[in-house]
Amino acid sequence: MKKVLLLTLLMAFIASANSFASANKYKVDDAAIDQVFENSINVVSTESEVNIMDITSVKASNDDKNVWIALLLDWVLGGIAIHRVYLGGRPILIVGYLFTCGGIFGLLPLGDFIALLINNSDISKYVDNDAFIMW
Fold first, then answer.
1. Which residues does 79 contact at the CB level (< 8 Å), separation at least 6?
2. 36: Cβ–Cβ under 8 A, 6 or more apart, which residues?
3. Separation CA 88–CA 61 (nearest Å)
4. Segment among 22-26, 104-108, 109-113 with least mean pLDDT
5. In angstroms, rounded to a whole number, what is the distance separating the alpha carbons of residues 64 and 37?
6. Burial of 30 by CB count in 10 Å (0-12 exposed, 13-18 middle, 19+ buried)?
7. Does the pTM of the predicted model rise above 0.85?
8. pLDDT tens, 53-107?
9. What is the pLDDT of residue 116?
């Protein structure tokens, strides 16, 4: 009975959210949009002028993650994997931690905390780590 009631409430919430974001509440001024495009400038004129960013430069920006911020986030919000997202993990890890009741009842955040605390001088193997268990 509880499942049916929960499912009904969830469907009612989704229906109310859909009606709240109804397209009838918004009006598009096509003339204003055309004016914006007419006043815009061409930033890239040909494909040869596009400077494609090197993948190593993207990874280098993740290497400057602060281990103490990660430890603080793990201590406060470890059950929802905010520290893992801060370290470069995908946000889907949050869903995994929530489905396992805070990372297998808090064991994963505790292991993450200990691993980060022990290896605080070099956390490069934890940065951009999408594995459910990072250690």
1. 97, 102, 103, 106, 109
2. none
3. 10
4. 22-26
5. 39
6. exposed
7. no
8. 544 444 445 557 899 999 999 999 999 999 999 999 999 999 999 999 998 999 9
9. 93
Query: Is the separation of the CB atoms in 131 and 81 below 8 Å?
Result: no
133 closest CA partner among 91, 86, 97, 95: 97
Q: Average pLDDT in the 16-31 region?
A: 67
42/55 Cα distance (integer angstroms) = 26
| DSSP H or E run through 76 | helix 67-77
Pick from 62, 132, 67, 65: nearest CA to 93? 132
